[in-house]
Amino acid sequence: MEMEKLFITGSVSIKELPEEVKKEIEHIRQCGIFHVFIGQAPGVDVLVQKELLGYPSVTIVNNRPIKRNLGNWEEIIVEGDDFAKDSFMARECDSCLAIWDGSSKGVRKNIDMVLARDLCVTVWTPNEGFKIELYVD
After folding, report:
1. DSSP E strands, the chain
2. Contact present, 89 and 116 (Cβ < 8 Å)
3. CB-count exposure of residue 60 (10 Å: 0-12, 13-18, 19+)
4. Domain membership of residue 89 as a residue range
5. Percent of the chain topping pLDDT 70
6. What CATH number is associated with residue 17?
7. Cα–Cα distance, 50 to 71 (Å, whole number)
8. Reported pTM
């Protein structure tokens, strides 16, 4: 059985993951059915990498040499800018988990790219304290 590909994206301004988000990541680990695509930026990317330590199915994606790969996972370098890197993950995924500060334009663009493919996006907004699930009808 092929694993579901999950794109995790988030804001660099977020310095701590709420317990609810940590529980969701633990659920991802426990299910073991997801292959996670994530970047290596400070903020959410690194915080989620810490939570995923020991989970084998992770790929770190960036558009330049990777500096933060906490789990020594597979790495993919995408040619181009940050948009090219994020577009790659948005094209590869089956669903998306976004941890968004509500203002990051990059995370918003990632959400929009996944929704444009008629896929589910779960959005956590830690600053607002709520979670929403977005689907395209």
Report:
1. 4-10, 34-38, 58-62, 74-77, 95-99, 121-125, 130-134
2. no
3. buried
4. 4-134
5. 94
6. 3.40.50.450
7. 8
8. 0.93
Helices (H) and strands (E) in the chain, counts: 4, 7
69, two tokens:
């790969």
Total domain count for the chain? 1
Q: Which residues contact 8 (CB under 8 A, 6 or more apart)?
A: 36, 37, 38, 44, 45, 48, 96, 97, 98, 99
Mean pLDDT across 31-53: 96
Distance CA 44, CA 13 (A): 8
Which residue in the block uniquely carries the two structure tokens 């558009």? 63
- State the Cα–Cα distance between residues 84 and 9, nearest whole angstrom: 14
Q: Which residue has the tokens 């040499």?
A: 65
112-128 tens-digit pLDDT = 999 999 999 999 987 77
